[in-house]
Automatic annotation (TrEMBL):
Domain of life: Bacteria
Residues forming coiled coils: none
Organism the protein comes from: Dyella acidisoli
Taxonomic lineage: Bacteria, Pseudomonadati, Pseudomonadota, Gammaproteobacteria, Lysobacterales
A Pfam entry, by short name: DUF4440
Residues annotated as signal peptide: 1-21
Name under which the protein is recorded: DUF4440 domain-containing protein
InterPro entries: DUF4440, NTF2-like_dom_sf
Signal found in the keyword field: yes
């Protein structure tokens, strides 16, 4: 099954050992405090379909590279993320990866997620990687790669 770009986007930055929408956000223990705050805010923005937060946390040059082989821009991703009937109901992250340097970070892992894409139920398993950059003193997500997993 190929993931739609919307399904890929749902996985994008939900870095946690497990989370349920509206109840928990990612566990960012050990990350720099400002990066952990940005990643947590991004988790919540996705769960709540919060357009202003997504606008703030995604860099203007953000790209989502999904397993369909198509790329999605910041504007395209946000339009999908806030579409009526789209929400995540369950996320579990395993095989977590965290690499941080002074002005950049890679956060990723294996994700199992369930939810609704424009009213249609979905369940996915994918490997993802998010690349964060610290620009002008604040962390923003600049790139996400998501691939189907068996």
């Amino acid at each position: 099954m190929r993931l739609s770009l919307w399904n890929c986007a749902i996985c994008a930055a939900l870095i946690a050992t497990s989370a349920q929408a509206g109840q928990e956000v990612g566990d960012y223990t050990g990350l720099p405090q400002d990066l952990a705050a940005a990643a947590t805010a991004y988790d919540l923005a996705q769960f709540k379909s919060n357009r202003p937060e997504l606008e703030r946390l995604l860099a203007d040059d953000y790209t989502l590279a999904g397993s369909s082989g198509k790329n999605q821009t910041k504007a395209e991703y946000i339009a999908d993320a806030v579409a009526p009937g789209s929400r995540t109901t369950y996320v579990a992250i395993t095989q977590q990866v965290r690499k941080v340097w002074p002005n950049g970070a890679v956060l990723g892992g294996m994700v199992d997620a369930k939810g609704f894409n424009r009213g249609k139920a979905y369940a996915i398993r994918a490997r993802f990687v998010d690349i964060w950059a610290k620009r002008d003193g604040r962390w923003q997500l600049i790139f996400t790669q998501v691939n189907d997993a068996p």
